[in-house]
Amino acid sequence: MRIFASKLSKLMNMKKYLLTLFAAALSLSATAQDIDTSKLSEYDKNAPFGWGAGITGGEGGETVTVETYAQLFAQLATNNTTAKIIYVKGTITFSGYKEVRNVKNKTIIGLEGAVLTNPTHSTVASESGILYMRDCENIIIRNLTFKSAGAYDMDGNDNISLIGCTKVWVDHCDFQDGVDGNLDATNSSDNICVTWCRFRYLIAPWPGGSGGSDDHRYTNLWGNSDSRTADQDKLRTTFANCWWDEGCKERMPRVRFGKVHLLNCLYSSSVTNYCVGGGYRSNVYIEKCAFTSNKAKNTPWKNYATSSGKTDYNITITGCSGTSDKQQRSGSIDYFIPSDNYTYDSYASSSVESVVSNSENGAGATLKLKDASGIEGIATSAEVQKVEYYSLDGILVAAPTKGIFIQVTTLKDGTKRTKKIIR
Predict the structure, then answer these.
(1) I need a labelling partner for 83 at 20 to 30 A (CA). Which of 31, 64, 94, 423 fits?
(2) 258 vs 261: CA distance, rounded Å
(3) Which residue(s) pair with 384 in the sheet?
(4) Candidate from 116-130, 181-195, 269-283, 403-417 with smallest mean pLDDT
């Protein structure tokens, strides 16, 4: 009888232990994987909002860490829709753009210092660019630095191109020296949120490209043709707490068709021709942003809806520093008012420069992650003793089928790691 009682007690203790692990696993945030929130700006929500609200990326999926080009794209294979959180460690070098096609439900997040780079200047367009994402959905990209070889006008490729992609959140990334652009969205891409990103050029532009411009530091193109009527009611994007830093010449962004909200963003480049470009049927709302350089103040926006028969555009500027309020349009399209479409918080434009340019927690790849030993994918297979799966009521199962399960990984040193699995 005493033996039976002892076994029962052990079982009860094990169940209590497992329930504690399950509670911890279930409390993991969908978008805040392993981010040290104590180091964030007080204005950083650590989540997408606006036109990107509800993006979950790889929530509930397997966690892996990649260190090489081959490892990264094994996780981003064409038509891969399995939820997954991919941590990038170190520097991964490209020799040309890589197409990522019809991939869904992924979070790509850089460990501190992670870089994706294509450093070699080339006159061959296919040898430029980094990520070319086509028809992807529910994607999160965070805390990565993208470095290319410098602006060159040859109809080359971008650090990231979003082609027909929906539900994309790009957060705390540092975009440097894109050949064609730093981050572009075209072909009916939609429901995009870009937060706490830094755009800049550290390399002098390359002259003599076939496109004709000797200085193509044009950072963000949102819609690439006045004739692409399929973009109507698409390209809806919220930019918040982004920084167009030194070297940015134009397109911050340049918009066609889309309803684009620019909130608490910083414009400080000393070489700016103009900041925001309003193209055909663009509907742009610039709110509580800071234009701090003389050139940014001189031309905070420019009308590009000038082609015959394609002159419709709307722009609203409100509460910004460095420029006055304005509401102007051509045509009869209703003005886009973000608060009619979603709720959000903001702060005064007088604080934007100090908040967004803060080197510790402002725009760019400034996220601090918790102890790397707590990230599931860091463990190598040699460190793993066993992997077990449990139902939510604590019953050990052979393998997860459909539903929600808890994965418990036991390492050889006795450490146990848990995470939620959704199948």
Answers:
(1) 94
(2) 9
(3) 411
(4) 403-417
Q: For the residues of 182-251, what is the DSSP string, one character each?
A: SEEEETT-EEEEEES-EEE--SPPBP--TTS-S---B--EE---TT-GGGTT---EEEES-EE-TT--B-
pLDDT cut 90: percent of the chain above it: 79
Amino acid in position 30: A
| C-beta of residue 325 within 8 angstroms of C-beta of residue 301 | no
Residue pair 315/329 in contact (Cβ under 8 Å)? The answer is yes
Rounded average pLDDT over 284-289: 98
**pLDDT band, very low/low/confident/very high, at 415 (cuts 50, 70, 90):** low
Structure tokens at 63: 């966690």
76-89: per-residue pLDDT in tens? 999 999 999 999 99
CB-neighbour burial class of residue 388 (10 A; exposed 0-12, middle 13-18, buried 19+): middle
pLDDT attached to residue 28: 42
Nearest C-alpha neighbor of 141 from the set 76, 203, 94, 71:
76
Name the nearest CA neighbour of 287 among 262, 309, 306, 308: 262
The pLDDT assigned to 409 comes to: 74
pLDDT tens digits for range 346-378: 999 999 999 999 999 999 999 998 755 445 444
CA distance 155 to 152: 8
First-to-final CA distance of the chain:
41
Contacts 24+ apart (CB under 8 A), 82-89: 83/57, 83/58, 83/59, 83/422, 84/58, 85/33, 85/57, 85/58, 85/59, 85/61, 85/109, 85/377, 86/58, 86/377, 87/63, 87/111, 87/375, 87/377, 87/378, 88/114, 88/116, 88/144, 89/65, 89/114
Res 421: pLDDT:
64
DSSP 327-373: EEEESSPPPP-GGGT-------GGGHHHHHT-TTTSSSS---B--GG
The 10s digit of each residue's pLDDT in 215-234 is 999 999 999 999 999 999 99
Query: Could you tell me which of 238, 240, 252 has the C-alpha nearest to residue 295?
Result: 252
Task: Tell me which residue of 61, 71, 52 sits closest to 33, measured CA to CA.
Answer: 61
